[in-house]
Specification:
Elements (H helix, E strand, L loop, with lengths): L26 E3 L2 H7 L18 E2 L7 E4 L10 E4 L3 E2 L12 H19 L12 E12 L15 E3 L6 E10 L5 E10 L14 H19 L6
Parallel strand pairs: 4-6, 5-6
Antiparallel strand pairs: 1-7, 2-3, 3-9, 6-8, 8-9
Length: 231
């Protein structure tokens, strides 16, 4: 949702509480090998850093919680973008919901793939240089529509999985001048899928989160290549 005030979206505000409609469906899984995979939780990442908003001005960007740009910035003078490795720092609001390595790798690789597609090969830089922007992006929430829960015994030697029908995702990104390191722009957003009954992705693996990622990649690329930050 568009927000003209410079404030962090709900996933970044410790005091904020966001509720999503979820459904829990119990599925018994008997294979011991599956139990081992289900218990592999890659949480424990460092805290999400504070966004460097000082000196920046909030600009309208449809559907983006935060799009702040340094006054006087002319993005048209940059012609290439260096995309850093996509980071991931997730602290689950749902304590019993694991973040598997498969989920984490999908989130990182899918976001990068979509960014590269939106910018196009000719606009991608391999190293810093004149006319190059550096994009550092961090995924701060990623909830599949069908996530894995930590191991739970079902009394028969197997485990119990549960699945949410609604996905979530959030990110923040910092755009800097690759030569000087000066912050040029900041992006941040969070989103939750449609309620059950309206959610077309409820039975998919990553339908909601992937949809958000595609939108964010397109918005970031459009803001940069379209000169939306020109002041």
């Amino acid at each position: 949702m568009q927000d003209t005030a410079v404030q962090a979206p709900a996933f970044f505000r410790p005091a904020a509480v966001r509720f999503a409609a979820v459904v829990l469906v119990a599925l018994a899984v008997a294979a011991p090998a599956v139990a081992k995979v289900a218990s592999q939780d890659v949480r424990g990442a460092p805290p999400v850093p504070e966004l460097p908003l000082q000196g920046l001005e909030q600009r309208p960007l449809s559907g983006m919680d935060i799009f702040s740009v340094r006054p006087g910035t002319d993005l048209s003078r940059y012609d290439r973008v260096l995309i850093d490795p996509i980071g991931l720092s997730v602290t689950r609001r749902h304590e019993d919901l694991a973040l598997t390595e498969r989920d984490a790798e999908h989130a990182r690789s899918y976001f990068r793939e979509k960014l590269e597609q939106e910018f196009g090969a000719r606009a991608l830089a391999a190293q810093p240089g004149p006319g190059v922007l550096r994009l550092s992006l961090l995924i701060t929430e990623f909830v599949p529509n069908s996530p894995v829960f930590p191991e739970r015994q079902d009394g028969r030697g197997g485990i119990i999985h549960r699945t949410y029908g609604v996905g979530e995702a959030a990110f923040q990104a910092v755009l800097t001048d690759a030569m000087t390191g000066e912050v040029v722009a900041v992006f941040a957003d969070s989103d939750t899928g449609q309620p059950l009954g309206q959610n077309l992705h409820a039975t998919t693996q990553y339908g909601d989160a992937d949809r958000f990622i595609r939108r964010w990649a397109a918005q970031i690329a459009s803001a940069v290549t379209g000169g939306s930050g020109q002041g």
